[in-house]
Prior knowledge:
It is a single chain. The chain has 5 helices and 2 strands, in the order H-H-H-E-E-H-H. The chain is mainly alpha-helical. Helix 1 packs across helix 3 and helix 2 packs across helix 3. The relative contact order is 0.12. One of its GO terms (molecular function) is DNA-binding transcription factor activity. InterPro entries: Tscrpt_reg_HTH_GntR, WH-like_DNA-bd_sf, WH_DNA-bd_sf. It holds the Pfam family GntR.
Amino acid sequence: MLITLDTKSVIPIYAQLRNQIVAGIGRGELKAGEHLPTVRQLAADAGVNTMTVNKAYQLLKTEGFIEIDRRKGATVCPVGCGNSDYREKLEKELELLSAEACLKGVGCEEFLQLCKNIFGQMHPTCIEEG
């Protein structure tokens, strides 16, 4: 998986790293049990400080996307079920995205179609059959 960072973005570098790793897991580019680069290796590859990568990895661990073992390093966790804390976070983020879309003139159907298209790009293990 190729990581690309925008140093001019208002989004902190550690958050960009986190977001790209989560998206990579969601799209199936990173599989459960797969080892991520070491903190030092990813920092060198991305041209950032090791503390930045460490912060991203710790956030991913806290959120349940990766496991960290001192001997084995960071590995991708299996796709799990959402919990009530996550659903609350999802609702808040969707509320904000919906408000922004509404204020920028994006209609409900267009917004829902965008969501459906993007969600459809995720790996089949992430998509529930409905």
